[in-house]
Design goal:
Layout: H1 5-27, E1 40-51, E2 55-69, E3 73-88, E4 96-112, E5 117-128, E6 133-149, E7 157-171, E8 191-208, E9 213-224, E10 232-242, E11 247-258, E12 268-279
Antiparallel strand pairs: 1-2, 1-12, 2-3, 3-4, 4-5, 5-6, 6-7, 7-8, 8-9, 9-10, 10-11, 11-12
């Protein structure tokens, strides 16, 4: 029986380390660097799809992010969620089936030492029961380098980072918790894992066609030093086409390859969304 005690202790310790790294570097700025923050900015994007016929499908995706920037520091957060159901009318009996059901929360902090060198820390808490993944807790921190920066410093740059991290994943085969105890019984068909990751990642943003298209591309790989076969790779590309100052047409493509996934699940996951975004 998975008691969760070790995971809770590790999560608290990891979160404390993230706070120390993030706030510690932010607090290291000199008084003359501590300008007034610009306030919170953000974007909410949503997509929706429905089909009826021999096969009925319904799917929705939500992506909300916000950030606040100081002279040398940036603090950001992001929430994503997707949900979809399908029914094949040719089946007898015809039953609804959940095909998408994932939620994720991301927090990140970046501190710039000067024009090129930076330090970035990030935190992920996510789940995807359709992939048999009940929870992922992922903490990462490390130095980075700004290779290029355009005139619009928030929308035109390329940076790369290296770092270390802690990753916890729980796969329980959709068994759910024991009704009597509320705990996960991993002896049925699940398992949990703790990894100490070496991390390499990048982020590229740019404007094309005189600002008519905004491009964001992130990619990264986490290689566990205690189990190199359980690596996690992920890349995401987002294209935004502004319609006016607030609204934009938005399409995104996500690819994730988790070599720690159960044998009965596909290790590769792709998700493509098309919808509208609203900036504030």
């Amino acid at each position: 029986m998975f008691m969760g005690r070790d995971f809770k202790r590790a999560s608290i310790l990891a979160a404390a380390i993230w706070v120390v790294f993030g706030l510690g570097f932010a607090g290291g700025a000199s008084a003359e660097d501590e300008d007034e923050p610009r306030g919170w900015t953000g974007e909410v994007a949503a997509s929706f799809a429905a089909q009826t016929g021999s096969v009925d499908t319904l799917a929705a995706d939500l992506d909300a992010k916000t950030e606040r920037k100081w002279e040398n520091d940036l603090l950001g957060g992001r929430l994503t969620g997707s949900y979809g159901r399908t029914r094949d009318r040719n089946d007898s009996p015809s039953e609804d089936r959940t095909t998408q059901n994932s939620q994720a929360m991301f927090l990140n902090h970046r501190h710039s030492f000067h024009s090129r060198f930076l330090w970035r820390s990030g935190l992920e808490l996510s789940r995807d029961p359709t992939q048999d993944r009940e929870v992922r807790f992922f903490l990462a921190t490390g130095p980075g380098y700004l290779f290029w920066e355009g005139e619009d410093t928030e929308k035109q740059f390329f940076e790369s980072r290296i770092g270390i991290g802690y990753r916890y994943e729980l796969f329980d085969g959709n068994t759910g918790p024991d009704p009597a105890t509320g705990l996960f019984d991993l002896s049925l068909n699940g398992y949990d894992s703790n990894f100490a990751d070496a991390i390499l990642s990048m982020e590229y943003r740019n404007l094309f066609f005189d600002g008519a298209m905004e491009w964001t591309h992130t990619a990264g790989i986490a290689m566990p030093m205690n189990d190199t076969d359980a690596y996690l790779a992920r890349t995401e590309a987002i294209i935004g086409i502004p319609l006016n100052e607030a609204w934009s047409f938005r399409t995104a493509f996500l690819f994730e390859y988790n070599n720690n996934a159960p044998d009965n699940q596909n290790k590769a996951l792709t998700r493509t969304t098309v919808g509208l975004g609203y900036k504030f």
